[in-house]
Amino acid sequence: MKGVFTQFVMVIVSIGIIFTYVKPSFAKIGVIQEESKTYEAELEKVVAVNSTLSLLKSQMDSIAMADRMKLLTYMPDSVDEIAVLRDLFLIVNQSGALYRNVSSGGSGSAGTKNKNSSAVTATGPEQYGFTLEVEGTYDQLKSLFSLLERNEYPLEIQNVSFSKTEGGFLTASIELATYSFKSQLTSE
Amino acid sequence: MPDPSNNSFIPKRGPVPRGKHGPASRRVYLFTIVSYIVLFSTLLASGGIYFYTNHVTQQRDLKIIELNQAITSFSEANMREVLEFDERLRQASGRVNASVSVLSILRILEEATLDTVTFESLTLTREADDAYALAASVYTDTFDSTIFQRDTYSENQMISNVSVSGLSVNVSEEETPGVKGKTEITFDVNLKVPVQKILYTPSSEPVTIKPATLVEDSITAASSSSEEAVDEVSNEETI
């Protein structure tokens, strides 16, 4: 009788251990394994991002310095308006046309009537306008346009007005636009 | 004499067979085995679960450490640099793809304009990145030239939205009696040239614009200093 009682107690204790320790432990192990899976998945994502960033950085660094300087010249951080006025003066002189006047219109406003340009958008570069007045023969003005379109940074012609003068020459009032880089990244 | 022990009225039982008490003692034995098995299994399972829980927890903690290390190794400065460079390239590419040769517009007009037609004035206006709108005040001497010029513009594949308006005729007075005066016909022409048809294509000729020497020297100095800076950064990264 005593032996049977002991055996009953053993069975009951076993059942108690199963319900109070084994079963909750299984549940806990399941939770820990789920967390491990989540961390594993996130780790894979982070590693992939780091790998992509390293690849892009190395691609960027592999670009020749000369090409990067050309890019910076074409799309600088800011436009030196006086330098542009000087370049326009030099271009006009080189074309053979007669330089009359040049003025800057500030960023994205005066000097350019092209308010609908896709460049003047929230995601596009910053636009700067200039107005150039010249006089010369038709061939000289054509030479001027040729030099303008071959410049190392954009000098887009937004508006040109030709008119005749008494001496048989042509006068041209040219509205130009150039651009600077506008960063879309917000500083944190 | 008969054995007095045989005189008892109590009948003697034969020897009891062994198998009769088997079922009762067999049930107890099985339950004992079962109870012992259950207890020991439970204890073994508890021990195994304890160690497995520790193992799984260690694995998770290792994953957390690796994740933190990977997050820490992410360089936000590199990311900003790459994003800025990419954005600069996109903006430059956008303007390059919209670069137009105004000279091409003049060549189109030269080819499409009759010898008997003279431009009094001409205005070119860029409409976004879509087209150039031309407005010209034109002079000619006959109606036939006017009609022919309008048709020539309309049939030109590089030109669209041709309209002729504001036509006026002026006949000058006879300078010599009997000789008709000169007919002057002026009209306004409006047309458009799509940007896609006059995109600028760079030629193989080198750029002839030479900025002032001082600017060239400053650009050269800036590029050499930039190269030195890039070399220093790359050396630091190697270290």
Q: What does the average pLDDT of chain B come to?
A: 79
Which residues of chain A sit in consecutive blocks of at least 5 with pLDDT less than 50? 109-119
Radius of gyration of chain B using CA atoms only: 53 Å
- Approximate strand percentage of chain B: 15-25%
DSSP E strands of chain B, number: 4
Secondary-structure blueprint:
The complex is a heterodimer of chains A (188) and B (239).
Chain A (H helix, E strand, L loop, with lengths): L1 H60 L3 H10 L6 H15 L2 E10 L18 E11 L1 H12 L6 E9 L5 E11 L8
Antiparallel strand pairs in A: 1-2, 2-4, 3-4
Helix pairs in contact in A: 3-4
Chain B lengths: L21 H52 L2 H22 L4 H11 L5 E10 L3 E10 L2 H13 L4 E12 L11 E12 L18 H26 L1
Plain-language structure description:
The complex is a heterodimer of chains A (188) and B (239). Chain A contains four helices and four strands; from the N terminus they run H-H-H-E-E-H-E-E. The radius of gyration of chain A is 37 Å and the shape is rod-shaped. The longest helix of chain A is centred in the N-terminal third of the chain and has 60 residues, at 2-61. Residues 109-119 of chain A have low confidence and may be disordered. Chain A is of the alpha+beta class. In chain A, helix 3 (81-95) crosses helix 4 (138-149). Chain A has a four-stranded antiparallel β-sheet with strand order 1-2-4-3. By secondary structure, chain B is α+β, with helices and mostly antiparallel strands. In chain B, 52% of the residues lie in helices and 18% in strands. Chain B has helices at residues 22-73, 76-97, 102-112, 143-155, 213-238; strands at 118-127, 131-140, 160-171, 183-194. In chain B, strands 1-2-4-3 form a four-stranded antiparallel β-sheet, with helices on one face. Chain B is rod-shaped and about 190 Å long. The interface between A and B is large, with 80 and 81 residues.
